[in-house]
Amino acid sequence: MSDLLSGQHFLITGGGSGIGLACAARLRADGGVVTLMGRTQQKLEAAAAQLRASPGADVRVAVGDVANEDDVAAAVKVACDANSALHGCVAAAGTGSFGPLLDMDRAQWDAVLATNITGTMLTLKYAGRAMVAGGGSIVAISSIAGVLTHRWMTAYCVSKAGLEMLVRNAADELGGAGIRVNAVRPGLVPTDMAAPLVANPPIQADYLDQMPLRRLGTPEDISEAVRFLIGPESSWITGQVIASDGGHTLRRGPDLDSAAQAVMRATQQHPWPGAPQA
Q1: 3-state secondary structure of 13
Q2: Residue 243 pairs with which residues in a beta bridge?
Q3: Residues β-bridged to residue 34
Q4: In a structure prediction context, what are the per-residue pLDDT tens digits for the chain, which is 278 residues long?
């Protein structure tokens, strides 16, 4: 598209697929050097091969878990070697869970918060350290679940609400070093993680009913918002969350009861007052 980001180095966590990969492709299209971080070597290598198909593409891979501090520190070193600075970072790694709060497994709760909150904090910590000398831009991927209730997705909602406050606080702290921190808040986008919601006709229909623009998003929709926030066009913007959701946050959160009913049938859970009838 352009060479506006030529020679600039970017780390993308969760870069092996979905929104993370789309963001990497968008930054690469403007000349950026991208490093994909994720937990699965095979997925990362396949994504890197796809990006390297464009002439002159410099694409790097760092296998690791964002909830592991050593892995994040190592990924930042891959992204900015001795001869380069880190100019930007997209914190796209995320996970979710589904099920009733009253039956929630503690390990499931901890896993969601470890990736979505602790992983984002560690990404900010080490990417921020690499940018202190010259400034830069960090963009985290939130969700409409951070501001609209999603029944049966409590851990995910709480993690994304916390992520947005983390972004605001980091922007306040790091602004003095010339580091901008923002977030994009996607609506429903067909990715691997969202596949069960997209594949459920009543749920997809209800999502669409809450969107004035009445279409599902795409990873590329989100990548365009990320590209704006990470690039020089937004040089006076920090601490903000931009919703790219078809207008969903103008209305209410989705009705996920049909999926909860299926979970209750599969697990033979005993209903409680207010539970969806299985």
Answers
A1: strand
A2: 185
A3: 10, 59
A4: 789 999 999 999 999 999 999 999 999 999 999 999 999 999 999 999 999 997 777 999 999 999 999 999 999 999 998 788 999 999 999 999 999 999 899 999 999 999 999 999 999 999 999 999 999 999 999 999 999 999 999 999 999 999 999 999 999 999 999 999 999 999 999 999 999 999 999 999 999 999 999 999 999 999 999 999 999 999 999 999 999 999 999 999 999 998 888 766 766 665 666 667 65
Indicate the domain borders of the chain: 9-267
What is the pTM for the complete model shown?
0.95
For tokens 């780390």, name the residue: 11
Amino acid at 237: I
74 exposed, middle or buried (CB, 10 Å; 0-12, 13-18, 19+)? middle
Rounded CA-CA distance 12/80 in Å is: 12
User: How far is the C-alpha of 141 from the C-alpha of 221, rounded, in Å?
Assistant: 13
Nearest to 94 by CA among 136, 140, 131: 140
We find that the CATH architecture of domain 9-267 is 3-Layer(aba) Sandwich (3.40)
Q: Which element (helix H / strand E) includes 37?
A: strand 33-38
Q: How many residues does the chain have?
A: 278
Active-site amino acid positions: 156
Sign of the C-alpha dihedral computed for residues 152, 94, 222 and 167 taken in this order? positive
